[in-house]
């Protein structure tokens, strides 16, 4: 209660202090280009980035570099979203909760018959699951990421034998995990009786008109995309600009439907940004669902953890999520008090785009003298 009260007070103060100026498109472009310069490839090496900014009710696109075979990146180029896909999961969960189909304090065992008689996993609450505070993780969730793979039976067997760490406080202690979202997908499939990708498409992607956003199946580390989408997918690279796999490469420890990475374009992500800012009216429940997904659950040293999202209070409150693989890097962030949103997608791995994104948001959302102080504080926290 004290945590939520503090957040509400901070949000109200920020609202009262919200600036009345409007940045020009040129000013936005200068801020984006200046900050993004740090991660753009030099010396004509391959790779690039697509950026979308939602600000003052308008959407701006900025594209840099090459996608594949010399083709330039456009706002319709498709990128692997990596962990940005979790924000779609959180939005879908919040919609189901508000419609009375699930409850955040429901347990996993309520929906997954195979786990109803299992050990500790059956008692995991859904809000703890998607806020990384359940205690559940696999060895593959953390460095050094051991080389092992799971089909669905093997994953379920792991869950049945999993033990909650003795010193873990559920709903408070943070352990980042990809496995928890695989389990969330299984919960959804049991609750609604259909494949997760179908449910996601039916309830969120289609209503928002996100025709270039998809959660494809994958085989032999390749997304199984329709030809019209595959032609628009980037070639991914490592941090040094070397190719990693073919266009459509997927990196996953989980080998069954609904476990790959999502793909999307800057144009679609612009619409998703508008939705996260409460600027999309359909589905009607979406604005309230977004607010629920952004609501903090647990306090961490440098941020507040919500459903997939991280909330960073300050002179400019930021709600964000980063995505990172060794061949792609991505970031989504919003400053709800200033109604600003930002997405960065690059086809180079291991880039610290979260830092770039936060710096850009601070420059777009604060007066220059305040932004400078906040940028300095951000740099100190990153050291």
Would you kindly provide a brief summary of this structure?
By secondary structure, the chain is an alpha+beta fold. The protein has helices spanning 2-16, 25-36, 85-98, 126-130, 152-161, 179-192, 196-208, 227-230, 266-276, 286-293, 353-365, 368-382; strands at residues 48-55, 58-68, 71-72, 78-80, 218-219, 222-223, 263-265, 298-299, 304-305, 310-312, 318-324, 329-335, 340-346.
> Got a strand count?
13
What's the structural domain tally?
1
Determine the N-to-C terminus distance: 32 Å
Q: Mind summarizing the main beta sheet?
A: 9 strands, antiparallel
**What order do the helices and strands follow?**
HHEEEEHHHHHEEHEHHEEEEEEHH
The fraction of residues assigned to DSSP E strands is 15-25%
**Can you tell me the CATH topology?**
Beta-lactamase
Q: Which CATH architecture? A: 3-Layer(aba) Sandwich
Helix content: 25-40%
Contiguous low-pLDDT stretches (5 residues minimum) are 1-20
Shape: globular
Question: What is the strand arrangement across the widest sheet?
Answer: 3-2-1-13-12-11-10-9-8
Radius of gyration: 20 Å
Q: Total helix count?
A: 12
User: Whole-number average pLDDT?
Assistant: 90
User: What class would the helix/strand composition place it in?
Assistant: alpha+beta
CATH class: Alpha Beta
Q: How would you name the CATH homologous superfamily?
A: DD-peptidase/beta-lactamase superfamily
């Amino acid at each position: 209660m004290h945590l939520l009260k503090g957040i509400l007070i901070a949000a109200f103060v920020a609202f009262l202090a919200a600036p009345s100026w409007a940045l020009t498109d040129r000013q936005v472009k200068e801020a984006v280009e200046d900050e993004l310069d740090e991660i753009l490839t030099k010396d004509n090496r391959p790779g690039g980035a697509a950026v979308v900014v939602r600000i003052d009710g308008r959407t701006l696109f900025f594209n840099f570099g090459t996608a594949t075979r010399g083709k330039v990146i456009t706002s319709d180029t498709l990128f692997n979203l990596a962990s940005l896909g979790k924000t779609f999961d959180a939005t879908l969960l919040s919609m189901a909760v508000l419609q009375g189909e699930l409850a955040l304090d429901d347990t996993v065992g309520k929906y997954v018959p195979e786990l109803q008689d299992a050990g500790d996993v059956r008692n995991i609450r859904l809000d703890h699951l998607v806020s990384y505070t359940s205690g559940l993780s696999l060895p593959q969730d953390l460095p050094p990421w051991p080389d092992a793979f799971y089909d669905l039976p093997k994953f379920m067997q792991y869950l049945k034998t999993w033990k909650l760490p003795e010193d873990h406080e559920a709903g408070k202690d943070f352990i980042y995990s990809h496995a928890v979202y695989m389990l969330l997908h299984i919960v959804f499939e049991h609750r609604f009786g259909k494949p997760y990708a179908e449910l996601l498409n039916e309830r969120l992607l289609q209503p928002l008109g996100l025709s270039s956003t998809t959660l494809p199946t994958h085989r032999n580390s390749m997304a199984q995309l329709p030809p019209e989408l595959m032609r628009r997918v980037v070639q991914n690279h490592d941090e040094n600009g070397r190719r990693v796999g073919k266009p459509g490469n997927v990196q996953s420890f989980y080998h069954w439907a609904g476990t790959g990475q999502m793909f999307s374009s800057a144009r679609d992500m612009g619409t998703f940004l508008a939705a996260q800012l409460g600027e999309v009216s359909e589905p009607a429940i979406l604005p309230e669902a977004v607010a629920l997904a952004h609501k903090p659950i647990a306090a961490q040293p440098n941020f507040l953890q919500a459903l997939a999202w991280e909330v960073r209070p300050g002179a400019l409150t930021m709600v964000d999520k980063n995505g990172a693989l060794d061949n792609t890097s991505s970031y989504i962030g919003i400053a709800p008090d200033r109604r600003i949103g930002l997405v960065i997608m690059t086809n180079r791995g291991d880039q610290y785009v979260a830092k770039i994104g936060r710096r850009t948001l601070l420059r777009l959302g604060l007066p220059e003298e305040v932004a400078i102080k906040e940028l300095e504080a951000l740099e100190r926290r990153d050291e």
